[in-house]
Amino acid sequence: MEDLTSLPHEVRGVESATDELSDDALLRQFADGDAVAARLLTDRLGPRSFSVALRMLGNRAEAEDVTQEAMMRLWQMAPNWVSGQAKVSTWLYRVTLNLCVDMQRKKKPDRLADVPEPEDNEPSVAERLQDAARKDALQAALSQLPERQRQAVVLRHIEELPNPEIAGIMGVSTEAVESLTARGKRALTAILAGRQDELGYDNG
Amino acid sequence: MTMAEDDMELDQLFAQARQNRPELPDDLAVRILTDAESVRLDRLAQAAQPPRPLWVRMLDGIGGWQGMSGLVAASAAGVWIGFSAPGFLPDPAAYIYAQDVTFVVADLGLDTTFLEDAE
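Above: the input entities. Below: the structure tokens describing the complete assembly.
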């Protein structure tokens, strides 16, 4: 039996004919028992799920768990996949985003309990942002956006997906996507310029 | 800093983020492929099981052997009651028949009255 758990460097070495197959066709091959298809799908789709999860959660370990679970659901639904109705990547993005939302809701109560009383020498929000800016200014700013705006901005400006596909992933109209990304960008600009007080946080 | 400069800064940050998209960590890829393999093997094992004959699946549908014996007992009781109903139960057949007779008699009575009036 083929060892599927070998390191993914070899995944990138799998070549030629199967490489050109669509995600759709690969998923069907996996459902029919083809192990190589799983490697190729992991290679193609795994990084996308992980990239989005990492931007949504800002936490590596959580993003890894979300991506593993999203891919697990992909493997499980493979036999029920109806070709041609949607893109496999669209489905995976949607599952990933939903899992991120679940993850954030689950950890909220713990977080509140863990938050220490504010102290006088606690750095201000602006100071903390400056500090974070050295590491990843964008991530720090993204984490302050309302959820839907963050989803739209990440899919549009980091994953570079077209608006109709984002609309399909988020289950809203293209106009709604345009509005969410525009508001998200405005908010990010304000956050990065240290003008958070100008933000009207409307979660839509 | 002007608004336009702020926008440029944001666009630069997006560009950086796109260039530095994270790779899939090796250990995560291994975890994902291990999951895929277990799902794949489960499915192959299920497919490898010989198809069960129709009568076995029908038997399962009514609850296996226990369900079957229950059905047999209930049918036998039904047949027995049909042959010899216990004395305390009314005989439904006779009851329906008696009602019919009453109805017909009453009808006839009305008809007769009507005929008498006509005359």
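Note for the figure: Chain A touches chain B at residues 4-5, 7-9, 11, 30-31, 33, 35, 38-39, 42-43, 46-47, 50-51, 54-55, 64, 67-68, 71-72, 75-76, 78-79, 137-138, 157-158, 160, 185, 188-190, 192-193 (CB under 8 Å).
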